[in-house]
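Field reference: sequence -> structure
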Amino acid sequence: MEIKAVLFDCDGLMFETEIIAQQIWREEAAKYNVELPQDFFVHITGSGGPSRKAYLESIPGMKEVQPEISAKRFDLDFWRSIHTDCLNKVGLIELFDYLKKQQYHVAICSSSAKEYVEILVGTVSEPLYYEAIVGGNMVKKAKPDPEIFLTGAAAIGVDPKNCLVLEDSKQGILAAKAAGMHSCFIKDTIDPDEEMQKAIEFQCTDLLGVIDLLEGLHDGLGNHSC
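Structure field:
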């Protein structure tokens, strides 16, 4: 196994945004007496496109209030106002520095729009090294379809089999597998179900652990947890 590129998800993986997002969903849904299903966040985290839209519209009352909730969730002025490094997940800067020094190719592949991702990246005190950002608004099919990761790999000129995808969502892990890429799950707010567990190749507790994972893979150790 030769890893030449690392493809990052954004929300919940690079940045501590999912907890904020979930609070927005809960508060706004409660305002309109919309009841969120128990597995609601498993379905919507990391997803987008028609499948997400259809799922949201299947929830009684959600179709009418969802646009307002999404507008608040992706209020760019709100995210611009976040203090420097306030959202960074553990090991974010260290991992990006490591990847640059070791000359890995890097892309950020998020279901969210590119402009939103760029704003989050701009909240980091040190410039993050990457070659491409692929936002959900740049592809036709959302995760778990592999299009976004295949687009990211093509943008940085790396064969999918040589890519490691870092993800915190079920949709992202399934998309990585469908793309023929290696994957590493880093838990944020979602506990893996049986289908997801079968698809996960590696697992780390945080982004710092990915450095140890890559070192181990380079040395031929191939540990599945870090």
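Note: DSSP finds eleven helices and six strands in the chain.
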